[in-house]
Amino acid sequence: xPSSDSPPRLRIRVVFTDxxxxxxxxxxxxxxxxxxxxxxxxxxHLGMSYKRAWSLVETLNATFAEPLxxxxxxxxxxxxxxxxxxGARVLALYRGxxxxxxxxxxxxxxxxxxxxxxxxxxxxxxxxx
Length: 129
Prior knowledge:
Helices cover 52% and strands 12% of the residues. A hairpin with a 2-residue loop joins strand 1 (14-17) and strand 2 (20-22). It is built from 6 helices and 4 strands, in the order E-E-H-H-H-E-H-E-H-H. With 129 residues, it is mostly helical. Helix 1 crosses helix 2 and helix 1 packs across helix 5. The two termini are 19 Å apart. A two-stranded antiparallel ribbon has the order 1-2. The chain has a two-stranded antiparallel sheet with strand order 3-4.
């Protein structure tokens, strides 16, 4: 059963076409790259493989008119990645959508949360121990 102890949150995916979208995973990767300067480090922090992180970077760069991430080869000492101005703007716009939607839908989310089933102690396996 879902816990009603924490407030509900939205996970928003902006779908541009059947093959192009921006959602929480890609936004978190952008944020991680901006914070760490590394695609690999951002991917590790999110629990994704290096290959998956690179695949998402390639997808993001191909989806938008301008690249969102620039990278340079060279390993830990000389390589790295950074958000471009377009990347920072896309991330800011996406986070703005999240904030606006959360604020606008707060009452409705609270009403939905109030309708959640409550855990029944008789079906809780840990109660039998």
